[in-house]
Amino acid sequence: MDTVAIYLVVVFACGFMARLLRLPTLIGYLTAGFILHTPGIESLPVVDTLADLGVTILLFTIGLKLDLRMLLRREVLVTTAANLVALVGLTAGFLGVLATVGVRLLADADWQVLALLGFALSFSSTVFVIQVLDERSDASTLYGRVAIGVLVLQDVVAVAFLTAIKGVPPSPWALALPLLLPGVWLIRRLWHRLGHGELQTLFGIMMALVPGYWLFEAVGIKGDFGAMVVGILLASHPRAVELSRTLFGLRELLLVGFFVSIGLHVTPTFETVLLGLLLVALLPLEGALFTLALAAFGLRKRTSILAGLALANFSEFGLIVIAAGVEADLVSEDWLVVVSVAVAASFVVSTLVNRRGSGLVTRLSGFVPTLGERRTHPEDAPIDLEHARVLVLGVGRVGRAVRDRLVDEYGLSVIGVENDPLKVSALRAQGVRVLEGDATDADFWDRCTNDDEVEIIVLAMPFHGSNLIALEQVDERDFEGTIAVVAQYDDERDELIRLGADVAFHIYEGTGVGLADSAAEAAGVGR
Length: 527
Known about the structure:
By secondary structure, the protein is mainly α. Helices cover 64% and strands 6% of the residues. α24 (490-498) links the parallel β7 (482-487) and β8 (503-506). α3 packs parallel to α11, α8 packs parallel to α17 (316-327) and α16 (301-311) packs across α19 (357-365). It is globular and about 80 Å long.
């Protein structure tokens, strides 16, 4: 228990210090890992178990929200393949240059070693990118979905490579995995009986770890990849999004172990740390390649840049690939340290870059070529707000209720804006006028046309941070109409009013009023 106490205190203290310095807490957890690796502190193997569980639950929740059609789009498929080849070549070339200037670790490296190292550093971190997207509530935006699609395809390539380098093919029993389909069909039928409490959470963990991780590992396929596959098979269930949200807190807690574990397994030397930090120089190239490739498919500058910035980091899969190379005697163990340092440093750099927001995107836009309107991506086309008097940003339960009230009771022309494509499709099928777009995106407002008649903007997105960003975007455009927002907490409501909202409504107050009206009406009590 003494060792556990030391770990908890160090990890919490480093995370809290990062928060005080206005840095993401994951930087504190990375620092904690390096501190806990110092001599005299007993190792705690359970951290690795927590790290594996965190990554497994993460990939399972990605599967729950994944639209398979996105993986087959040209901008995802071709971008992933082209960038993989380009990054392997650029990284191998960069390491070759370092070899010519006398870096000891590269003294005897042949082209195969350089190619393996380039391959390991060509992946972006699934864990990190999902954290960035979740913090921004951007997982359902176009750039978020493109980034997730690239990450999934990269994971598929990594799993295929790890299977090949083992020299041992998957078990013949892997051919029986399609039998999961009827099993999942039966499970989906029973899912509705689980309720919304701890039984559903337990169900999610069981599905990720048993038919996901354990079953795939048993037939020679990487277990966390199996968890993502099972998540995909369950993704079309009506409660998939709810389950993903239920597992969010557990996932975030377990991923603390992942970030701590990166620093627990390396003994840095001056040479390995320096070389790992030098590899960070490749990140701008990685981000630029992703940005230019996506822009070539007609995505707007902002969309391309945001995806490129999110993907500009090294992956935990790089560590796994290098570990497999060490086991196969292709590279020395020192490269595990180098890549560990590079991965950790890339998280720090990428975090600081992604925090800079729209200002950085605007500055970088000048370096991205402008494509003709003929080649504009369909999801980045102009947004027509003709005849709309009200915009409702976020058409979830609250936003839908606001839209219906304004249309049915006040006869106003309302357009909803929602960034979740599945929700947009469902609403359109119900006859709701709704546009797919991200109201926190500055270019969303630049794409709007025929907006002269808009008198009311309602911010009804589920995350306070998203409403704040959208409020800033509206304020920058000198909107003279009425701005109404919803808030979950009193301090959030006060902040929104202070920043310019005309009306800030506590979401639970609305629930109470609606419930009272419904109860009185059902009882025949007049007003």
